[in-house]
Write a structure and sequence with these properties.
- The protein has about 130 residues and is mainly α.
- The chain has two domains: about 45 residues, Serine Threonine Protein Phosphatase 5, Tetratricopeptide repeat; about 70 residues.
- Helices cover about 55% and strands about 0% of the residues.
- It has eight helices and no strands.
- Helix 2 packs antiparallel against helix 3.
- The longest helix has 15 residues.
- The chain is elongated, with a radius of gyration of 15 Å.
- The N and C termini lie far apart (about 30 Å).
- The relative contact order is 0.13.
- InterPro entries: Ankyrin_rpt, Ankyrin_rpt-contain_sf.
Length: about 130
């Protein structure tokens, strides 16, 4: 399966933090696919996410977090406008219970939903 392929690539010197053309790293792809085994394997091999050390306390922190992921940076201005226009504050934002609602709040519901899952999961991980 995927874990075996990842292990083979790692044993042959693959760069665990190599980004594809859209800025996606293997660990982000594992999170997107909800493959905990591969994510753990990559983390053990040194894979990191630019936001591993971030504290998310405001909606602006969330946008900064998404910005640091480097995924689809062209959507950042749209997110900032949506947050301002909808007057979304941190209390409202952190009460959101699913990825789709989070993307709607950020004004980027045209993002593929699996990226919403990535953002939501990582954001929730940083809340704890």
């Amino acid at each position: 399966g995927h874990r075996e392929v990842a292990a083979l690539l790692l044993s042959n010197g693959a760069d665990v933090n190599k980004q594809n053309n859209e800025g996606v790293t293997p660990v982000l792809k594992a999170i997107q696919k909800q493959n905990d085994e591969v994510e753990s394997l990559l983390r053990a091999a040194g894979a990191s996410i630019p936001t591993d050390e971030m504290d998310l306390e405001t909606v602006e922190d969330v946008v900064s977090y998404i910005e640091k992921l480097g995924i689809r940076p062209e959507y950042i201005p749209q997110m900032k406008t949506s947050i301002r226009d909808k007057n979304i504050n941190a209390e409202i934002f952190f009460e959101i219970q699913d990825a789709t609602a989070m993307l709607v709040a950020l004004g980027v519901s045209n993002f593929h939903i699996s990226w919403g899952d990535v953002f939501y999961r990582l954001m929730k991980a940083h809340q704890s």
